[in-house]
TrEMBL record:
It is an enzyme of class 3 (hydrolase). Keywords: Carbohydrate metabolism, Hydrolase, Magnesium. GO terms for biological process: CMP-N-acetylneuraminate biosynthetic process; N-acetylneuraminate biosynthetic process. Its EC number is 3.1.3.29. Belongs to the HAD-like hydrolase superfamily. NANP family. It comes from Aotus nancymaae. This is N-acylneuraminate-9-phosphatase. Pathway: Amino-sugar metabolism; N-acetylneuraminate biosynthesis. The keyword Magnesium applies. InterPro entries: HAD-like_hydrolase, HAD-like_sf, HAD-SF_hydro_IA, HAD-SF_hydro_IA_CTE7, HAD_sf. SUPFAM superfamilies: HAD-like. Gene3D superfamilies: HAD superfamily/HAD-like, Haloacid dehalogenase hydrolase-like domain. One of its GO terms (molecular function) is N-acylneuraminate-9-phosphatase activity. The keyword Magnesium applies.
Amino acid sequence: MGLSRVRAVFFDLDNTLIDTAGASRRGMLEVIKLLQSKYHYKEEAEIICDKVQVKLSKECFHPYNTCVTDLRTSHWEEAIQETKGGAANRKLAEECYFLWKSTRLQHMTLAEDVKAMLTELRKEVRLLLLTNGDKQTQREKIEACACQSYFDAVVVGGEQREEKPAPSIFYYCCNLLGVQPGDCVMVGDTLETDIQGGLNAGLKATVWINKNGVVPLKSSPVPHYIVSSVLELPALLQSIDCKVSMSA
């Protein structure tokens, strides 16, 4: 790591600053209630939601030719048809999708302690939000959690030529803030995108948020630091800067 102090921190959004996984589960529970109470589904309701979850996890976006609303409504339509048989029911699929989506967005909030941390950090360093994903989906989340005002810049992978872990998006972020890769720290929960990307771009440090104590695969990229919560970051940044002043 270079001998300069940290000048900028890049934050991932999903499951780093907001609990996207938890919000999605709340959305699924609402859909299960709907299917059971209004449509009298029994255990099929949970099976449908499980199938949709699998489809979401395998999603591949080609932003130029896919509308996320159509794609995700199709996940529900296929899951319902695979579980119940019979003709496709687009209308029910849309009802499920929009209920899941609206519930999920309602539960995407920045916790008060996270807001306080970002506010304090921004007095010392530049802050940038760097999130992969479909433009519409990510912009809706950013609006729902009202996080834009805590950052000097916001970069959405789906709006760029390449997403994390490509070095180009990290260099783009550095240019936006007027800093060098060696001045920056990447913080995120995904080894393959956040950490690998930070390593690819030669950032000063990468910080992996490992909330659930997951043991990474041997082939996974190795972060410089591991924390269990984003709230541990200020102390960690202080210790990184201390190392710099001691080396100097």
